[in-house]
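User: My instructor asked us to take a sequence, write out its structure as tokens, and then describe one feature of it. I'm not sure where to start. Here is the sequence I was given:
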Amino acid sequence: MTSVADPAMLKSRPKEAVAPAATTRDIRLDFFRGLAMFIILCAHTPRNFFTSWIPARWGFSDATEIFVFCSGMASAIAFGRTFDRAGWALGSGRVGFRVWQVYWAHIGMFFAIATLLAAFDHFGDFEKTYIGTLNLWKFFADPGPQLVGIFTLTYVPNYFDILPMYMVILVMMPLMMALSRVSVWAVFAAMGLIWLFAQRAVLDALGLIDLHLGFPAEPWSDRKWFFNPFGWQLVFFTGFALMRGWLPKPPVNKVLIGLALVIVIANVPLSHIGMRELGFDWARGWRIANSGLFNKSDFGILRYVHFLSLAYLCWVAAGDGGARLKTVGTGLLSRAWGALLRMILKVGQQSLAVFVFSMAFARLSGFVMDQIGRTTWNMVVANCVGFVSLILVAYSVAWFKSHPWRGVK
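Assistant: Let's start with the prediction itself. The structure tokens for your sequence are:
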């Protein structure tokens, strides 16, 4: 990984913030974000037995952490350079443009999926009502007020709240960049303080629940966005800080590897697999009593600890610069892995388009399985078709982004 720093910026920035920022993309970033896209597809496909093997079943963290953390790292490269080169105002403008893009991706995704579910109900005669599978009753019963809510993000159904969460975190980026010019410690303090006021369980215990940070998800209840951006910014800006050089690269040593392994293994008895398949029945009571420590909505602290441990082990296993990812086996095995690696990287590079597509495809796949029945082979085929579809979408989007028509005379 190469890095540079603008001398003029170094003179104007305080000592704590002069660590070199990454300017090139590490293949590990795209590899793990690509894997997250495949996992997210499995997780959102209704009654998919593949989900028994995703990270969320074996520990507190899941593919959402991978996606948000890697997005933070990618943002440090994509937007950090603009802040360094063009200044804070233009850097903020570029972030605003990205927020605009993600906003319309969110709007388009909602209407595409809502229309798909409505089509199932309108043209079919099925036992279940598909708009009910995502709790869209209110939207279809009284669309006028809900349309206002959709466009103002004051109505955010659970299935559709990851992109709004991502938008709010992006909006925080100019603040963090401004604080970094004072001190990187100011950035870390802001991250920690914002995260703390997003922890409902902590604030409730302190009698400060009225100070809980969050956005209302619907006007007819007190429900808030499932993915609380004020909690999830912690993992995003951790990735951002590592890629910016605000946090040092963790050393590779036996002590850290051992500690990370202990944390990951200790999660297994407390996991869904541990309770349901491995016989750790006592964990059920512990989880109920301590749910605030790993709450997904507010991003509980144990999710953070588990994810950082798992990420460290994956980072070590991948090797410096992803060297071990590039060389697997010899001969035919090496060529096959090389082809698979390129496809995973492409999916990771086009994650927004792939994510939006996967959310719609998951509902379609679930509908098809409802009609033909779920067998082991049906679900294997459905998942494989989904994986291939994500790859095709990634390559198609990359092709359009390359503007191939420009070279045609």
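For the description part of your assignment, you could build on this observation: The chain has 19 helices and two strands. Try explaining in your own words what that tells you about the chain.
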